[in-house]
Amino acid sequence: MTEKKRTTPFYLIDTSSEFYRPIGLRIGICIGAALWLALEIYGRDPFWLVISGATAVYCVFTLLIAYKPPEPPPARPADEPEDKAASDEKPDQDITPSKEP
Description:
46% of the residues lie in helices and 0% in strands. The chain is built from three helices and no strands.
């Protein structure tokens, strides 16, 4: 028998992206999907009604119910310079042409 590997579930929306962190954006996406669903209910097109309904339910579940904000990157130690090459450089010097007679 084969062992089951633990893998992350497949999401159509990449919730680990910083783009989806603001709650207002996530609510706006869900409202847009719900408006599309309302339009299809009004138009009485059964195929698109199912598609838009599934989209609305998926957006609400993924972006509001099961959403976990991405973890911030690990902090850099305070004594470590930002960029070693940048710290070794001399400060910018004024390079203006001299006006010699």
